[in-house]
Predict the structure.
Amino acid sequence: MTPIPSNILAYIRRDMRNVPGWLRKGAAELIAEISCAQTEAGIKGDIYEIGVYHGKLTILLALLRSDNERIRVCDVFSDQKQNVDNSGGSETTSCSQFIANVARYLKEDIPNHRFLIDAASSLTLSLDKVEKNNRLFSIDGSHRDDIVEKDFRLAISGLSARGCIIHDDYFNCFWPGVSVAVSKVLLEQKETVAPFLIGFNKYFVCRVSELDWYHKVTESLKVRAKRNGWSVEKSEIFGRSVAIICDKSDVSYYNFHAEYSLHQKLERVVAVFMGRLGVVAGRARRFLAGLVHG
């Protein structure tokens, strides 16, 4: 498989940390690997991103464009009255700040004919605006279930025949509306789209007709993944096979929390014991004082 170009690796491993946001290095590398595999296979199309924050992922996606491909992004930016669930927190950015962030790494003036910006809520988007030829479609906008559902349905409609949807926060316990909405749509359209990869808080979905190809791509990532110290596992979701690639620290997450929970229980036992010991000691002092003064 074609290696990730050096300029993109440099952004992921060096420069990306300087842009605010929650995109993990492992997620960025998985996205880059899939995009390079698409390009090698002759899969062409545009790129769409809902929810950009300060542009951490936007920069990567823009760097992954081929010559005639466009990227289009949608965000409310500083118009926070449209941020109905406060996803992204209070550290918002204006559209002009976002443009400055992205332009710094792309070395081009944006917006332009290959970089388009929809400064609005994703609720205003339609298929006419998104179009149907997106080979990569990232969703990380509102986390409210009704909006997530609309965004996900729009992404499916706007996906090219061999494209891939990258959904954020499906397994994030702080945003249960994401998994509720995405699961609802996947169950309804289980003969149309399905997940093929889970990794680093990203949930990768493609058309059912392309599952075999994307499974081969994820299989080819095993050597590189292990070289990076990642764990590569297989599981099943919605009755279909799915690959899981993550840090080994993520694999031990629940073991850690089980141990931590045990540690907390022991602390409580000791605290109760010491408390009772204190009561006994207090009673002993009062008894001895009574003897002395009696």
Observations:
- The chain has two domains: 6-248, 252-294.
